[in-house]
């Protein structure tokens, strides 16, 4: 029982990080129908920004976590905005597949650029391909649990879940209550009609490319805090792919679906990994294929048959 | 010359023979201070380019000519690679010592790998090709990673350690013959009536259906056909590298083929030949840029996509790809 609960809790923890990444995939897909492969690398970039900024933030503000996560979200948001402006906007009305290949190109570019070690305008940029220890943003300690289930709950876990829930609530508020959020939903539903109603599509798309990456940046900080290390600039690939799968599982384009999918993914992965570490890796894909065969549009997605 | 102009097939055969002869001569003659100009490393790159061409053309049949979106082609390559390596290395312990025994086994093994990959392609394609949209993309992606996971947990295939000691059956000649035969087979298929119905499915699925094309069957068939060639390429690839690892066939590998295809031009066989040929050799040509080449490579990719969205070749074909028109008899009035 204790073992079961422990795996469930671990799954919720990793699921929270997946959820933050999956939201960005689903928002961008919902609006521009593009699988933004570079999103995983923005997540990585956020984690590295945490690595660089945390010591400075600790010096300026005293505490490190809150200023670091806000700064990282601002920087990744800006990166997302620039990326859309330079790479995706020229291709918006061309074939969707060429936009996808461009997304791949951006992804490879970010990975390899961050594996560099160079001096630019006198500033030494060292992302480097090497292993890095992530600074301790908070002091990790275990929280005693009454009873003798042998549960292991740390304050990092509570922080992960807490921060992602706060950000998700903010996102739901943003999408459902603000004007730009309503415009986003309108554009996702029907782009030409939304445009005829006087919605500025460019602004809406830019917003999606700022909000999604900002959430991924926050996810990157949580990832670094949880694992305490950054393996290499290629670390975003697999969490990103799993988050994408989570978004599809919940119904791509659907925001609550992405969160649901991410938690399913995190929990099933935690359980499968406790059986066999190689199995934990593949279980996500088996679940996805199973669910898509029964519900092709994902758990919460709407199936829209094509009419002639 | 007029003779060659009227006998285009013969001219093409001669041209390929010349290309082969030039590569072979450059890899033997000691022009570079006693070493051949093309050392073993370059020859291996040329062989990889050949395998990549077959992979890309077969991917192009599904993505470019049928308008579907498969992004897990490396999974089928893995099925072929592991099946053939299983036959030649684990079961039969063949070696290159006696080519008269070795090569027939090798050929049977790579064909078996292709057939198993085709079966995997049927399992993946039959349920997902009925649906329109991005489902095929997501299912193929997942199938790719699922195949890799199955290999990782299967002890007899080497599991996460990889499978080594595979005899090196793949030589420059094997790659040449394999590439040309595969591309010719796929070209003939694409220019047949099946190929025309594929293009109809791509251009408008509803119109194709209303003219009596069984679109699902057509899509599943081309998907299986393409998986077969991916499987055979996997076999050739395994017997070139002599060591295969599940991570060789990850989703990242599939993305490489997508890049080759779309940069070359997805709606043209020539594009699917040019793309991998350039992009396999490009990182080598940029060796002078040292560590920056991995940064410049994706920039070239992005700029190609922005300024030439349809790929390098677009809709154009090399003349040797096209089926020669019969000489029209001049009818005197």
TrEMBL record, chain A:
It comes from the Bacteria. One of its GO terms (molecular function) is L-phenylalanine transmembrane transporter activity. The chain crosses the membrane at residues 12-32, 60-82, 103-127, 156-175, 196-223, 243-267, 279-298. One of its GO terms (cellular component) is plasma membrane. It is found in: Cell membrane. Its main location: membrane. This is Branched-chain amino acid ABC transporter permease.
TrEMBL record, chain B:
Keywords: Cell membrane, Membrane, Transmembrane, Transmembrane helix. It is a multi-pass membrane protein. InterPro entries: ABC_transp_permease, LivM-like. It is found in: Cell membrane. This is Branched-chain amino acid ABC transporter permease. Its main location: membrane. The keyword Transmembrane helix applies. CDD domains: TM_PBP1_LivM_like. The lineage of its organism: Bacteria, Pseudomonadati, Caldisericota/Cryosericota group, Candidatus Cryosericota, Candidatus Cryosericia.
């Amino acid at each position: 029982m204790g073992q079961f609960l422990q795996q469930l809790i671990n799954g919720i923890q990793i699921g929270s990080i997946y959820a933050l990444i999956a939201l960005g995939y689903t928002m961008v897909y919902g609006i521009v129908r593009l699988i933004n492969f570079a999103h995983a690398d923005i997540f990585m970039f956020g984690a590295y920004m945490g690595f660089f900024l945390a010591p400075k933030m600790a010096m300026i503000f005293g505490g490190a976590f809150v200023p670091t996560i806000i700064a990282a979200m601002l920087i990744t948001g800006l990166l997302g905005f620039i990326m859309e402006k330079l790479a995706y906007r020229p291709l918006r009305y061309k074939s969707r597949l060429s936009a996808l290949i461009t997304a791949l190109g951006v992804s490879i570019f970010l990975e390899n650029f961050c594996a560099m070690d160079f001096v630019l305008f006198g500033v030494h940029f060292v992302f480097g391909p090497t292993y890095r220890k992530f600074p301790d943003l908070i002091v990790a300690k275990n929280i005693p649990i009454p009873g003798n289930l042998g549960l292991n709950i740390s304050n990092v876990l509570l922080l992960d879940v807490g921060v992602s829930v706060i950000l998700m609530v903010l996102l739901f508020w943003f999408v459902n209550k603000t004007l730009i959020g309503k415009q986003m939903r309108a554009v996702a539903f029907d782009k030409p009609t939304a445009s005829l109603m006087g919605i500025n599509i460019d602004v809406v798309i830019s917003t999606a490319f700022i909000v999604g990456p900002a959430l991924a940046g926050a996810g990157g900080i949580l990832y670094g805090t949880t694992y305490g290390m950054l393996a290499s600039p290629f670390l975003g690939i697999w969490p990103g792919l799993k988050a994408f799968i989570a978004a599809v599982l919940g119904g791509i384009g659907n925001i609550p679906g992405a969160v649901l999918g991410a938690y399913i993914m995190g929990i099933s992965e935690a359980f499968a990994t406790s059986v066999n570490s190689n199995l934990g890796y593949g279980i996500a894909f088996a679940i996805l294929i199973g669910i898509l065969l029964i519900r092709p549009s994902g758990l919460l997605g709407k199936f829209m048959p094509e009419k002639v | 010359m007029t003779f060659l102009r009227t006998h285009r097939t013969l001219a093409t055969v001669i041209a390929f023979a010349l290309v082969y002869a030039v590569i072979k001569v450059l890899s033997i003659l000691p022009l570079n201070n006693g070493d051949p100009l093309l050392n073993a490393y370059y020859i291996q790159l040329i062989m990889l380019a050949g395998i990549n061409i077959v992979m890309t053309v077969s991917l192009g049949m599904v993505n470019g000519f049928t308008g579907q979106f498969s992004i897990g082609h490396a999974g089928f390559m893995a099925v072929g690679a592991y099946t053939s390596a299983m036959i030649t290395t684990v079961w039969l312990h063949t070696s290159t010592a006696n080519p008269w025994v070795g090569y027939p086994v090798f050929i049977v093994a790579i064909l078996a790998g292709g057939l198993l990959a085709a079966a995997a392609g049927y399992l993946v394609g039959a349920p997902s090709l009925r649906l329109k949209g991005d489902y095929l993309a997501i299912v193929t992606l997942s199938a790719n990673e699922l195949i890799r996971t199955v290999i990782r947990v299967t002890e007899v295939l080497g599991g996460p350690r990889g499978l080594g000691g595979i005899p090196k059956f793949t030589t420059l000649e094997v790659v040449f013959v394999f590439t040309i035969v595969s591309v010719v087979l796929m070209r003939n298929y694409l220019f047949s009536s099946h190929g025309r119905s594929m293009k109809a499915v791509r251009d408008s699925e509803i119109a194709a259906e209303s003219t009596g094309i069984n679109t699902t069957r057509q899509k599943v068939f081309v998907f299986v056909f393409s998986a077969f060639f991916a499987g055979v390429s996997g076999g050739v690839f395994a017997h070139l590298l002599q060591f295969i690892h599940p991570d060789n066939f990850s989703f990242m590998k599939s993305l490489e083929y997508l890049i080759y295809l779309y940069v070359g031009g997805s709606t043209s066989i020539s594009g699917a030949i040019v793309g991998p040929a350039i992009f396999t050799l490009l990182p080598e040509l940029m060796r002078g840029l040292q560590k920056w080449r991995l940064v410049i490579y994706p920039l070239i990719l992005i700029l190609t996509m922005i300024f030439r969205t349809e790929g390098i070749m677009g809709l154009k074909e090399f003349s040797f790809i096209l089926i020669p028109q019969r000489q029209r008899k001049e009818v005197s009035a």
